[in-house]
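hi! just following up on the protien thing from before. the input was this:
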Amino acid sequence: MPPGLSYPALRCVLENLDAMKRLHITARSHSLKRIDKGIPLNIRSLNVEEQYTQKVNLFGNAITSIAIRIDSVSIFLYRQKLRFHVFGSRKQIWRREVPLWNTEKYLNYYLGEGRSKIFVNKLSIRLSRITPPAGVQLTINELDNIWSNFRIILPNINPDSFPLKMFTAYFSDSINFDHPIVHSSKYLVLSMNGTLAGTLLLSLGRLPNKAVLFNPNSWEHYEIVNIIKYWIENRKTIGTKYLFLYGAYKYILDILNKVSEEFSEIKTNLQEVDERGISKLSGVTIPINSQSKIYVYGVKKPNHLVVEVVSATELV
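and the predicted 3d structure came back as:
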């Protein structure tokens, strides 16, 4: 019989094992459980959400399905049944009944209860009141909290995670975008629908983040113009870059034409260029002062409008 693994070797194996495989293996071994909690758990993506169905129970309440996705495996808790599915497959890989009084126990196990170190590249909390158990600290790189209030998850995020590499949210007046965690994020992704009220539009222009991406939205030319005017009046920092996604490039051309008309007295036209394989539509530059200017142009594939602040001496 070959000799057993030493603790350093076993620790190395567990730490580099696929997260879901490790959780299943250690759950079946009392000896592994004793050492597993102290070994860092590495997760590529952790997604938690509540899915509301059209069915109602005897009391008239909507039935909620809780879904947790760890990397490529989704865990569904619905009507006291725990089901596991691999992403991209229609087949469930495991299923078991869960006693009603043990529901929280099973959820907490997969949300890291009792673990001292959990590293998550991307944490997503969508339409969910479910959070990791108290005391669990996740060290993350990215936070996606569309339709949720990110402040409820903050107690479970290790302060060493900040500044975040990416912060994603739905832009509305119910979210505090003046929070230092939002302002310090290296890359900000905002989703929205419809036109924005004046106060919300102004808050977009005030964001201190250098890189911001706005998901598809029916952006009107006056909204882009108002952001540009705010940047000119307040001398926006060089290096700031906003990207606005559009469904088709014809909308970008229309925006560029109207921006050009709005700033006709001070703007400079640019011809279509191709930089490092990226096809840029013709654009305009608008001076801020002697040190900086605003560069507005379109890019194909994916179709997006770019508004960025560059040095006045930079050739574009």
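The helical segments are 7-15, 19-27, 30-36, 103-110, 180-184, 198-206, 221-234, 249-262.
The radius of gyration is 25 Å.
cheers
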